[in-house]
Each structure stands twice: as C-alpha cells, then as structure tokens.
Amino acid sequence: MSDKRLQRAIEALLADKRPPRGKLTAEEASTLLAAARLRAAHPSNSAPRAEFVDDLGRSLREPQPGAPSRRYFLRGAGLAAAAAVVGVTADRLVGQVDNSKPPAPAQGVLVPWGAKWTAVTTLTALQTTPIVRFASGSVTGFVMQHKGEVTAMSAVCTHQGCILDAAGDFSRLVCPCHEQSFALDGAPLPGDYYLTPLPRLKSRINGDSVEVFV
Amino acid sequence: MVPRPRSFLRGVTPRRSKTVVPDAYAKDLLQVVDGGILPVEDWDAVYRDHVVPVYRFVYVRVGNRPDAEDVTSSVFERALPRLRTGATVGQLRSYLIATAKTVLADHWRGRFGVDELPDETADRPQLPTSDNHSADVERILNGLPSNYRDVLQLRFLRGYSLKETAHEMGTTIGNVKVMQLRALRRAAQEFEL
Question: Are residues B40 and B110 in the same domain?
Fold first, then answer.
C-alpha cells in the first residue's frame, strides 16, 4: 500500500514533477531522498532554467506586489490555504500524466541583466550565411534566418555547456562535445540525452543591421 | 501499519513560515568557513554568484524542478534582508545554506510530514558542485549489485521509461518497479540517508 504511494512519488520525480503530498515514514523519506540525488545527477538538472534565474533576480530586486506570482501567493499566511489547495490539485493531476515521456519544458526567453540592443550582424550577411554565431559579454548566441524570419537563441548546449556549431548545411545546431543537436527552433533533437530547449533571445532588425537584446 | 486517511486539511495546516534559522547554528557554521572580507554592496552580484549553487543544493534534496524553483525562491526571499547588511563571502554562503536547510525542512514537513531530514552537510558546509555530486552518485552506483545499478542508471540517468527499461533488461514492468524500489532503498543506505 505505502509502497505504491512511494512509487508514485518516485515516478513524479522521474517526470520532473512535484511528488504527491502524503505522510512518509523516515525510511520512505530516505528512499525518496536517494531518488532525488539520482535525479540531480542527470545532466539536464544540473542548473536552473535561465528564465527562472532571470525572473527571480528581477522579483528580488524590485518586488511587485501588483503582479501576483505563485511565489507571492505562498508568502501571505492568509493565502497559504488557497495555495495549498492549488498544490493538491496539481498533485492529483500528476497521477494522470503519462510518465513514459520526459518533460519538454517550455523554451524561455533569456534577457540578461542590463541588456541593451546590440548589433551583431547584417541582413546582407545572413543572405550568404543563414546562421551567424556571436559573442557579446556574457551571452554567446546565434542569429539565423529561418523560415523567412530572423530569430536569435543561446548557443550554449543545455547538456554540459559546450558552445554549439551550425551544421555544415545549416539544418541544425550541433554540439561538438557529445552526440547531440538542436533544431533551428531550439528544440533538442532525439539523442542520447533528454535536454531542455535552447533559450531564445530577443532580436530585431534595424535598417540592415540585426540586433539582439543582450 | 494503519494507513492514515488522506486528508485535504493536511495541506491547509499553517505553514511554519515563521521558522527562523537559529542563530547559534548559523554561528557554528560561520566558524568553519573562512572567507575574505567583502562588504556586500551589490545584491545582484551576490545573487548571480549563488543562485546556481543554492538551486543545486536544493535540487539534490527535492529531486524535481517545480519544487526546486519554489524552495530556491523562498531561500533568497528569506535571506535577502540579512544579506544586504554586509558580510564576508564565507558568511554569506553559510547563511544561505542554513536558510536553505530551514526552508527544506519546512518543505518536507509540509509535504510528507517528515520531522527531520538526515543532515549530511553538518561537517562540510560547502555548497556542492555538479561535478562532485556526479562523482558521488557514480561511486554509489558502482558499489551496487549490477541489476540495481542498471535499473537506476537506465531510469534516473538515461531517462528510460518503465517500459523501455523492462525491455532493455529483459523483464516485466512490474519487476522493474520492484527492483527500482529495492535499489533505491539500498542506495539510500549507501548515501547514508
């Protein structure tokens, strides 16, 4: 009986979801902690999402009481009850989620602190080379012309941080360190590892020059 | 063991949001860590330097992203006022770890009714790096019987589903579940949890 609940909690961790609420014995808690340690050793869990780091940094710097975030919710004691109910509902849903596939987290937009619009290449250059890599301060990224649109994204592999290269035929972004590559929309292509997509960067066209917000 | 009724109300019991880090404990930690004197003027820099290690410290103890993000947020929100007063790098780190432990204890108590978590950082108050964590895990896995090691490697490190794991190991899904649980219990002992 309790084995089943523990197993559900373990499967939740494997799907990168919150484990359901419920009393655990000390031994069960230790088993679940061991599962957490193993999950933490998976390469895709070695760092927080860029978007999370960015959002939290912003909210710490300038708390905005007007913008209710879930986190903000949890802070107020009076609202804790409501938040707990939300938590329970979410936990319940976990049981119905198909765990056989790894989660595909949404692709976030990376906006560095103190970012400003920076020209990195030109439209003319993109005509001849549709994918251009640039390095600007703390961000290394690609700008590319893909399906008639100019887009930009991080060039750092979400596995272990190697810098990606464009494939020779400009069909995908390839990691030089391991057998892993990404589609031009930043989604990881099937490979040895389950990776998070590449964060996107803000980009715009200013005359002939292509600018990114980094 | 008598199964406890699953109660909605459990989730609504007051969160112990007032828990503070006992100062004596923080002081103990401070003595073990040395760090250069660095007046903290720049909160952004403190945050940038510590958010990843703190997140990792938390992730190792919750094992999933949504909880890791919530707990990490709480740690910084709670620690923020103290951090702004100025401290050495070592003190900052210790204080963040101590705060993280308090928030994690609250989290486990609220979610699973567990009173005490094994405190394996008492004698080495450093934030872990992903390198030494992976090495620890590898060492533990290599010490397990081969079927235990295989099932944990396939499921946790390679992300195989139950079905894929059963296929790879030439057994049934039911067996994989049982073996996985036993393997985790054994790994918990090896981790000294």
Answer: yes
Q: ipTM value, please give it.
A: 0.75
The range of the structural domain enclosing residue B151 comes to: 131-190
Which residue of A54, A60, A99, A113 is the best one to mutate when testing the B interface, meaning the one whose CB has the most B CBs within 10 A? A60
Cβ neighbours of A2 in B, within 8 Å: 1, 3
Q: What per-residue confidence (pLDDT) applies to B120?
A: 57
Residues B104 and B78 reside in one and the same domain: yes
CB contact under 8 A, A113 and B51: no
Q: Are residues A38 and A87 in the same domain?
A: yes
Tell me, yes or no, whether A99 lies in a domain. Answer: no
- Residue A67 belongs to what domain range? 2-94
A209 and A116 inside one domain: yes
Nearest CB among B47, B112, B161 relative to A22 is that of B112
CA dist., res. B144 & res. B142, Å (int): 6
Contacts of B175 (CB under 8 A, 6+ apart): B166
Q: Within a domain: residue A102?
A: no
Residue B87 confidence class, pLDDT cut points 50, 70, 90: low
Q: How do strand A131-136 and strand A209-213 relate by DSSP bridges?
A: unpaired
> Cβ neighbours of residue A109 under 8 Å, at least 6 residues apart?
A51, A199, A200, A201, A202
Q: Is the pTM of this model over 0.80?
A: no
User: Do residue A74 and residue A130 come from a single domain?
Assistant: no
Q: Which of A43, A71, A94 is the last residue of a domain?
A: A94
Sign of CA dihedral A48, A54, A58, A61: positive
Mean pLDDT over residues A158-174, rounded?
A: 88
Residues A36-48 have a mean pLDDT of 87
